Structure formats: C-alpha cells, structure tokens
Amino acid sequence: MSPRRASLLLGLVLLAFAAGLRDRPAHAGGGAPAPKEIATPGALGAKAPSLTVLPDGRVLMSWIEPRAAGGVALRCATLGGGQWSSPATIAEGDSVLGNWANFPVVQALGGNRLAVSWLWMRPGGSEACDVRVSQSEDGGRNWSDPVTTHRDATPTEHGFASLVARPEGALAVWLDGRKTVGHQEGDLGPAPDMTLRAAVVTPDGRLADEAELDERVCDCCQTAAVATARGVVVAYRDRSPAEVRDIAVVRLQGGQWTEPSVAHRDGWHLDGCPVNGPALAARGSRVALAWYTAAADSPKVLLAFSDDDGATFGRPVRIDEGEPAGRVHLTMLEDGGALVVWLEQQGQETVVRARRVGPAGVPDAPFTVAGAAAVRGFPRVARSGKTLVFAWTTPAKPPRLRTATATLR
C-alpha cells in the first residue's frame, strides 16, 4: 500500500471515528448515581409507596399494609438524616382500599400542610369505591376527617387520583365512573365512558371548583398533576372514539380549565386499558412528562419537556433500553433536566432502572435502582437537594416495601 493511500485511509478512519463520537449521546451529568438501600418502615405485606418532599427537605412516604386485626392501614413516615421516622397511621379499617395500580397518593401543600388520597369501599357494588382526601396541618402527625371528592354517590369506580397544592386547598384529580352506573361487565354494546374530574378540598373539608375535565378517558391508567408558575398541568391516558390511547394534558390557568390536547401523537391503538399512566414534574414553567407507549407494537418509555407551563411539549426522547414494562415516575432536577424511573425487562427479571436526562434532552447512562422489582408495582422517586430517594415493592410473598437513596454528582 502506498504511503499516500495509507494516509488517506487513516484520515477516513479518523473522520468516521469522530463522527461516531458526535452521534453518541453525551452524558447529561458526571456519572450515574449509586443507589444504596436503607432500612424501611412498614410491616410484612407493606406496598404501594408514594413520596413527597416537605419544605424543610425531608421526604415523606405513604404506603398501605395489612393490619393484624384485619383490614388495611394507610401509614406514613418521614426521611431525615438518612433514617425513616416511626410510622404514623393516617386511616385504617376494612374499607380502606389500595392495590398495585390504584394506590394512595401523598402531597405536600406548603408549610406544614399535607394531603393524602386513598380509596374507600362503597357498599352496593363489588368494585364500587370512592376517592377520599384527608389533610394534615402539622406535618403528618394528625389528620383531618376524610372528605369524599365527589357528590354523585353512585356505586361505581372512582380512583387513580392525583393531588396538587392550590392556594384554596388540595386539588384532587381522578377517574370517575358515575356514567357507568347500572352497567355490568359483559353487557352487550359499548361500555359507558370513564371521565376525568377534579375538585378542590378546602382545609375545612368543603368541596369547591368541581369540574369535568374530559368526558372519555382510559379506564384504569394513573393520572398525574403538578403545579407550575402559571397554574396546574394534568396528564392522563386519553381514549379516542377509535380506541387510540395516547397521553393527553389539560391545564388550569387563570381559574379556567383548558380543552384537552394530546401531548404527542403516538397513535397507540388498543382495545383495552394498559394500566400504565404518565408522570409529571415541574419547576416554574418548566414541565417534564414521561410516559409508556406500545404504538406499532414497539414498547417505549418517552420523555418530553415543556417551557410554557405544559401548553406545548418538545420532541420526545426515548429513555428505555429496548424491553420496557413502563410504570414510569420522575423528578425534576435543578438544571431543568429530569430523572426518570421505570421497569425494564432484563432476561427473566424485571428491574427498576433510572436515567438522568439533561435540560437539552440528552440522556445520561441508565443505572439500576433495584435488581428484582415487583412487576405489579410502580417505583417512585423524589429529590431533596442532591439526594434522590427511591421507593418500590418487592414481589415477595408477602410483598415488602423497599427504599434507597443516592447522591447526584
């Protein structure tokens, strides 16, 4: 080979190598966090965690667990100094409900105020349940009498609630089955529509600003809601007349709810509910939306950002590694990026994976939070300063609640 040709080939190789470096996704941060499991409160059988960050930086977790006397207890504890506090009971009894998909949600409202929502079994139907909300004025030590968020009193399903802080109280958003009253599974003809509704529960236990947000939504996918600089953004799985079940958003601005709009047109046609709702996080007017889709038989976990309080979202970034089960959650980072958690299949195992995405939409390397997670569960994540807190449920019999922390680098 002539020296000139060898030089030319070397130049082409270097150009190709440089192009390959340009095409590889740059890391959004300096290395992946390393989660470390910590001792977790909760009895055997504890499951279904929810996390919220208090103004003083502590993280509060709620969960449900079986009672020795029968029935279920809804409990909570705070994480400070690397240790969980002794648990406190929010509600308990034979009528307290919660499962792997339709679980209680806790939300900080500012100051020492908190709100929590859960399901309450209603007599008259095997699956009939109400959404109840209780509030605390002292950081979770004491809780108010529960308030049902809806007045329809129908023996139908209500659930998959989200909570968000408002000046006038706790805004609850939920899936509402009042239009399904009298319908039985297996009845001929189209099933009545599940709707999306909202109401504010005031600190003195009144309902205000009750509204129907969407007249036809997916039956059993989780909702998500966050406060932004200009109002509230709600995300949920829509259900078109053609059974396309993409993620939609509706916003509260200036005291008025907007018309629903599809965040991204995946075009996922599905004749049943995937039980796989979206997740939201916000910082000022910056909003992050994560969701699962299997449009065109290609499962994906996607993330998109908005800089206008959720009015529009940019091009989504793929987060998963090729075999996601979804079940997403996320938290905003100080630089305007986000950290997403989801379930991913790795061989015969389902693991909790996490990934940081920078403000420009560039993903960092993924990392494992838990190597043997429950398939029938939803991992949660919260951020307090540079500390990440993760919570999930193991598939043991009985299940176990687990938590871990990691430091952002």
Automatic annotation (TrEMBL):
<feature type="region of interest" description="Disordered">
    <location>
        <begin position="136"/>
        <end position="155"/>
    </location>
</feature>
<dbReference type="InterPro" id="IPR036278">
    <property type="entry name" value="Sialidase_sf"/>
</dbReference>
<feature type="signal peptide">
    <location>
        <begin position="1"/>
        <end position="18"/>
    </location>
</feature>
<keyword id="KW-0732">Signal</keyword>
<protein>
    <submittedName>
        <fullName>Exo-alpha-sialidase</fullName>
    </submittedName>
</protein>
